[in-house]
Amino acid sequence: MLINILFLLVTLACLGVIGFIVWSKMPQISNLDTQNLPQEKTNRKKNEIILRRLDVKSHETKQKLGQKLKPLENFWGKVQLKFRIYVGKIERLLHHEQMVKTKEEHSQLSNEELTTRLKSLIQEGTQYLEIGGFDRAEQSFIEAIKIDAKSADAYRGLAETYLRRGAREEAKQTFTFLHQLEPENDAVMVRLAQMAEEDDDVYQAIEYYQLAVVANDALSPRFAHLAELLLKVGQNDIAKEAIMQAVELEPQNPKYLDFLLETAILCQDKKLATEAFSKLRMSNPENSKLPEFKYRIDSL
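User: That's the sequence. What structure does it adopt?
Assistant: Structure tokens below.
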């Protein structure tokens, strides 16, 4: 019995010593940096590698997705552009409700007041156009159109404003509408011809130039340029007729006589080429191309 009691006391004493040691070491245990343990370092390193791989994969996925979506973005951009152009046309030219509302506002003014206001807006728009104030010019011309939806001067100013600011589609649409308002206006036809030529639409340009020279047959440069375009598309005989009209308007113009001679030779028209050669020699006897022309005519 005594032995058991002694064993129990020794055990309790040992437990007390152990408890005291543990209690005294608690601050050190609580401050232990688990981040620096070998196993923890290994696990953390693995996590870093995994996260880095995931980040790379995510970036690659975004890039691939962006490449796949790029055609869709381009398509959507074109849709937006067409929509903006469409809205622009509606707002600027064809917005019926706005026109009606404006007419109601202007109905309170007399015809004389409306005419004065119209002229003032067109003059104002022209002044802004001359100094490069395209936004203000556009606004003035549109206000003028709201007063008179068939004002050719307002549409002409608006078309020129769009053309000079680089809004070619709007300019073309406005000039086309103006051509409907003034079908005999040769200056509008020439504008449309020039724009068609800039767009490499030679046949459309020829059509407008032909309309222009029919409406006004007193300007030799138009006939000459029309002849150049006709030669481009292989209509040599018609080109010959056009340059002949230019020479008829300016008989002593060496440039036109030279062009006529070249065209006559191209058309195998020896008689016309000989006549053109004689006129060219008289107007410009120092022309260095005369011997060559003489040889080519003799070879016909």
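Residues 6-10, 20-38, 45-57, 68-87 have pLDDT under 50 and may be disordered.
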